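tool_call: predict_structure(chain=1)
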Amino acid sequence: MKEILSLKKVSHIYHGKKGETKAIDSMDLSVREGEFFGIVGPSGSGKTTLLSLLAGILKPSSGEITRNISPSEIGYMLQRDHLFEWRTIFENVMLGPEIRKSKTQESEDYARSLIAKYDLGDFKTKKPSELSGGMRQRVALIRTLVLRPKLVLLDEPFSALDFQTRLQVAEDVRRIITEEGISAILVTHDISEAIALCDRIAVLSARPAKVKKVFDIPMDKGLSSIERREHPLFATLFKEVWKELEFTNEKNESKSQ
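tool_result:
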């Protein structure tokens, strides 16, 4: 399967008044076309910095990032939906084309088709305050998809939701991204979530981050995220990923003492 992007010996250093902080150290990583790729790591390990590098928001201090798509074909979905409360759902979805000055009849028709396809047709003239948290996240994803990205970066997009809503919205997001044939990179602290949603998972070390191990998730892609949680392999995979993270956390704590 063709790679959509890859990192080779990528490092990133922040420069401040108190000196340098290395966030990422000589990282190697690759993501394939059509893949739902997960990234987990301890707090402060540089996961969001990594997404910013992949999106082209930051430039690496050293190393090489190869993208087989243009930066304009990368979408970004944040922790909060950031919908504008004074705009309707349709107007929120059309924000990207307006900013890019690419608003056309075709883009409007595509937005309407996505809104209808993913069960929000009855709400296109409503305001965000009239929607549930899960529906708002679905709108945020459609707002990203209307720009026709080939890769979507997901920065803990479900963390603000309660557990039950989180399960349903995560499944909605995975289903929509898969149906649209888009690649995705998910950053999450939740191991269960990563296993339930992803095809592969990279475990990062403590800062400065390196890729410690990449796990293949040998489950049928046709299974829902809920069905994956009930799969016989789920508990074993959880323990294996947790073991890598636990060792990382222990090592990080011993350094700070």
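agent: The mean pLDDT is 89. Proceeding to next step.
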